[in-house]
Amino acid sequence: MRTLPLIVVIEPEWPTRSYLRAELEELGYEILVFDHPLEAARALLEWGFQPSLVLVDLSRDGSLLSHVNHLLAQSPEAHLVLITSPLRAVPEYLQQRAEWILQRPVSVHEIVEAIRKLVPPPFNER
Predict the structure, then answer these.
(1) In the 3-class helix/strand/coil scheme, how is the chain assigned residue by residue?
(2) Distance between CA 11 and CA 62 in Å, rounded?
(3) What whole-number distance in Å separates Cα of residue 47 and Cα of residue 40?
(4) Phi-psi region of 28 (alpha: psi -120 to 50; beta: other; left: phi over 0)
(5) What CATH number labels 6-118?
(6) Regarding beta strands 79-84 and 30-34, do their DSSP bridges make them parallel or antiparallel, or are they unpaired?
(7) Would you kindly state where each structural domain of the chain is located, as residue ranges?
(8) Cα dist from 77 to 4, 15, 34, 62, 90, whole Å
(9) Residue 120 burial by CB count (10 A; 0-12/13-18/19+): exposed, middle or buried?
């Protein structure tokens, strides 16, 4: 039985995924990382998990939108943080659904701070 907040990270760049996982695990979150939203949707459905927050990096590939929509439909209660690019438009409905929108270039620290503000860490600060 899960008792820690579950954060789902969808990030195509492995270094960013790795750094986010390390930072968030240290703060006490349970983390699932994926490079594609379809994989995340399938895994959450199969395992029956409901995330506290979903982080999606849309800055590199706008073709992921239909899969992101599917994932969000499965997790309607989850907070949503988007990472976007000034060079790629994000649909208005997704901007309205997101509680936090970060624009590249963005640091891992800035991403973690956005997550912490929406879902406070379960453990005491370092």
Answers:
(1) CCCCCEEEEECCCHHHHHHHHHHHHHCCCEEEEECCHHHHHHHHHHHCCCCCEEEEECCCCHHHHHHHHHHHHHCCCCEEEEEECCCCCCCHHHHHHCCEEEECCCCHHHHHHHHHHHCCCCCCCC
(2) 13
(3) 10
(4) left
(5) 3.40.50.2300
(6) unpaired
(7) 6-118
(8) 16, 28, 20, 23, 21
(9) exposed
Q: Quick one: average pLDDT of 47-73?
A: 89
Task: Convert the pLDDT of each residue in 37-52 to its tens digit.
Answer: 999 999 999 999 999 9
Q: How confident is the model at residue 2 (pLDDT cuts 50, 70, 90)?
A: low
Give the full edge-to-edge strand order of the sheet including 6-10.
30-34, 6-10, 53-57, 79-84, 100-103
Amino acid, res. 27: L
Residue holding tokens 């590199």?
60
Query: Which of 95, 102, 49, 26 has the alpha carbon at shortest distance from 34?
Result: 49
